[in-house]
Amino acid sequence: MTLMRPDHPYFDAPFAALAHRGFSLDGLENSMTAFQSAVDLGFAYVETDAHGTVDGVAVALHDSSLDRTTDAEGEVSELPWAHVKEARIGGIEPVPLLEDVLGTWPELRVNIDVKAESGIVPIAEAIERTGAHDRVCVASFSAERREATVRRLSRPVATSAGTGEAARFFLGGLLGLGTLRSLEHVHGLQIPWRVGVVPVLTERHVRLAHDAGRVVHVWTVNNRAEMESLLDAGVDGIVSDRADLLREVLEARGLW
Predict the structure, then answer these.
(1) pLDDT class for 4, splitting at 50, 70, 90?
(2) Where on the phi/psi map is residue 30: left (φ > 0), alpha (ψ -120 to 50), or beta?
(3) What separation in angstroms does the CA of 198 have from each of 57, 157, 201, 202?
(4) Strand 58-60 relative to strand 45-52, pairing
(5) Residue 215: closest CA among 57, 11, 17, 68
(6) DSSP string, 41-86
(7) pTM above 0.90, yes or no
(8) Mapping DSSP to helix (H, G, I), strand (E, B) and coil, where does residue 92 land?
(9) What CA–CA distance (Å, rounded) separates 135 from 132?
(10) What are the residue numbers of the active site?
């Protein structure tokens, strides 16, 4: 059976290999260097997270604070861009503007996780200014944050389910109930394939999503055997810190 793919250019590729926060083996996640490394490897998709500064600037950063990944401290939502731009990821790389991530590589498809309410308006503005609608997927654990972001856009973008929507889909699949309603507002699922050590994604769930015309992307998979197992289950995308390894696996299967 042929998968009825979502009607959005973001999903045109036969398989979505997503470099998680770019590609860096030396702790420089979500830096321009990490994104360039993914592009240099041949990746057409990257995943990033975004927050908004107190003066409304969207930055590519996973944590709500600068503390873990940079040589500075403080909550991004409470700091001006003038302060955040002085921070260095791993003491080396500046925290990038989301607009620079979208604008530097005009063909690159970017999965954006809206991490906090502070990011809603500046993320939408960055997408608008770069005209990146056809190559962006807006995601969030919160469906409300995702929808608030999407409502501010002049053109449609790809979207993926929030935690509540994904949970309802999984429960419905396990109980044999209808599942389409839980995914009616999104193009697909971007989910962990296991919780702790317990796998939660089954081939049945993948099949149900496909029957509903939705794609399934799985994060964060850094082990070759797990990548192979998920490909066997029919997933449509894998998010990985090991972009190099994921490329090898996909090349061997003719999916690169």
Answers:
(1) low
(2) left
(3) 38, 32, 9, 11
(4) antiparallel
(5) 11
(6) TT-SEEEEEEEE-TTS-EEE-SSSBSTTTBSS-SBGGGS-HHHHTT
(7) yes
(8) coil
(9) 6
(10) 20, 62
Instruction: State both tokens at 106.
Output: 């005009």
Quick one: which H or E segment has residue 119?
none
Q: Is 103 exposed, middle or buried (0-12, 13-18, 19+ CB in 10 A)?
A: middle
pLDDT per residue as tens digits for the range 37-52: 999 999 999 999 999 9
**Single-letter amino acid code for the residue at 58:** A
Structure tokens at 95: 């925290």
| Token reading at 187 | 């193009």
Q: pLDDT tens, 195-236? A: 888 777 889 889 989 988 999 999 999 999 999 999 999 999
Return the exposure string of 234-249: e unless at least 16 CB atoms fall within 10 Å of the residue's CB, then b. Answer: ebbbbbbbbbeebbeb
3-state secondary structure (DSSP) of residue 236: coil
What's the pLDDT at 1? Answer: 41
Q: Examine the pLDDT at 78 and tell me if it is beyond 90.
A: yes
Lowest-pLDDT range of 2-11, 21-30, 49-58 = 2-11
Nearest to residue 6, comparing CAs of 236, 163, 218, 239? 236
What is the per-residue pLDDT for 170?
A: 83
Helices (H), 159-242: 163-175, 203-211, 224-233
Annotate 94-109 with three-state secondary structure. ECCEHHHHHHHCCCCE
